[in-house]
Amino acid sequence: MTTPMDTSDGALFAGRYRIIRRLGQGGMARVYLAQDESLHREVAIKVLADRHSDDPHFIERFQREARAAARLNHPNIVQVYDQSQGGMSYIVQEYVEGETLKDLIRRESPLDPRRAITIALQILAALRVAHQQGVIHRDVKPQNILMQPDGKLKVADFGIASAGGDTEMTEAGSIVGTAQYLAPEQARGLPVGPPADLYALGIVLYEMLSGRVPFEGDSAVNVALRHVQEAPEPLTERNPLVPVALESVVMRALAKDPRQRYQSADEMGIELDQVRQGLPISDETAVIGAATLAMARPAPPTPAETMVAPPLPPREAGPPRTPANPNRRRLWILLIVLGVVLLAIAAGVFAFTRGDTGGGTTTATTTTTSALVEIPDLTGQTQAEATAALKALGLAVLITKQASADVPTGQVIAVRPNPGGRVPPGTTIELQISTGPNVVAIPSVQGSAVGTATAQLEALGLLVSTVEDVSDSVAEGNVISQAPSAGVEVKPGSTVTLTVSSGQQTTIVPNVAKMDIANAQNTLIAAGLVLGAQTEVNDAAPAGQVVSQDPAAGTSLPAGGSVSVVISKGPATTTVPSVVNQARGTAEATLSSAGFTPSATEQATTDPAQDGIVISQDPAGSSQRPQGSTVTIVVGRYTGSTG
Fold first, then answer.
1. Which residue in 228, 196, 358, 368 sits closest to 295, CA to CA?
2. Does one domain contain both 114 and 72?
3. Which of 24, 39, 574, 590 registers the highest number of CB atoms within 10 A of its CB?
4. Which residues contact residue 50 at a Cβ distance below 8 angstroms, ignoring those fewer than 6 apart?
5. Torsion region of 410: left, alpha or beta (phi above 0 gives left; psi -120 to 50 gives alpha)
6. Is the pTM of this model over 0.70?
7. Are residues 130 and 198 located together in one domain of the fold?
8. Which domain holds residue 492?
9. Catalytic annotation on 139?
10. Catalytic option among 36, 82, 139, 166
């Protein structure tokens, strides 16, 4: 006997999904292939691992993945269909047949540069949609890129995505994401935006083109520190076949300062497409990419701050330029990079000497540190209390709202930047305030037109899935039923499945003409129809045979409909008049008027009284025959005396 949440092969999971087999298991969840019994399609079900089933952190991450991915609809993003509403935590999503990009890299790296660019452009298409919806993936890596046999890919696993006002998963002192693909600001636990995802994609491109990630280490913390402090080894040293322009694009994506990276997926995609077409990249990308490589051994940072390459000034429009000599352009770039590095070293030396003059001089480090304000932990306080506390410290306040089923309305859910950090006076601190549970009561749309029902549900932030079924009682295009049913409270982004009427089930009327009534009835039953009215008529057809039917053969009729038939009683009969002893002409007229066809033959006679007189007839007079039947009469013909 199976339970509603049984995941064994063949079990009916959650009352709807027939488990086919287990696909695999990660550190967070088990994944199963199943058949959706309602929509007749294969799906993948991610079930939170038992060891995490009571951990609010992992449950929130699981719910976060469903919420974030359900908002996104794009061919390069794995679609989420359904999620748990209580009890065991699970997500039902699109099943993608194929392998991960990590599998492809292990088997075939280094990839051809054009192929790597094609893959990256598809990932950027997915990130573009996510970023436009305010969703930052935060865990872009080859393991989360699903490759289909036709070469198309889908981005999966938004489990730690930052979706607009959703609660941050980053906690003080913790690193969220996969160490080998972390942006420096993400490794430091700072807020992240689209440049963090583009940094991770830069790592993925680096790995596709070289077969290895740029930073490796004995522990996740060690790798994270390398992201913050070190520059990657030049791609062209690991793979000489990588074009210099492509290396520059990757290195700009890997810039330590997120302000120097690409700011949008479109911006990075345009330059990758330029490289693919053999067109020149922007001067900004060339300079920032070269600067990233040149900072492989940066000068020691001052105690007060870390030096970064300054942002480039905007370019002024000018007349079209002829293509520059590549060697001269690279020399120009190297000169700029060298200048930036020399400035950084000079600034470091100046700051160091300023801080070591002895006596009572206050160092830059001491001055900066003493001016900073520690951010207090205000979680659980009311908005008014938290605001007053921050203003008392000389900090500005930004209020954002977020639904929460755990934090009472009006109280602080989270503080950004994270409590414990130190910031200058006047810094704006974000207080995320709870608006209470964010649930929607599903309205009743049963009987409504599907368009009206869909609009009503989508206006509440719900997703709609439809499946058709025949109905004898619900008009075509109207909703037969809904799941979950009306009144159930769910989170926005949940899926409501509508069963929509396709009208009555129809069948084609078979031809039963010329059948006897028994065979006609059996033929109609086999077609899902019934024998209707039966009318008998006289007909030339044999008695008991179907002469005609209504509706005619080939007509479409609702299942269970009836077919009326006309049955032959045989031809109509009438009494044959007796015409014996009548003159031939009179006899023929009498038979014709009675509806018969006379046929005369002559017979020799020696009796002159029988000359021209009907001697006999067949059939005999007073017998019953069908109208139109032939009556043969024998007419005497006098031949004279026999003597």
1. 228
2. no
3. 590
4. none
5. left
6. no
7. yes
8. 440-501
9. yes
10. 139
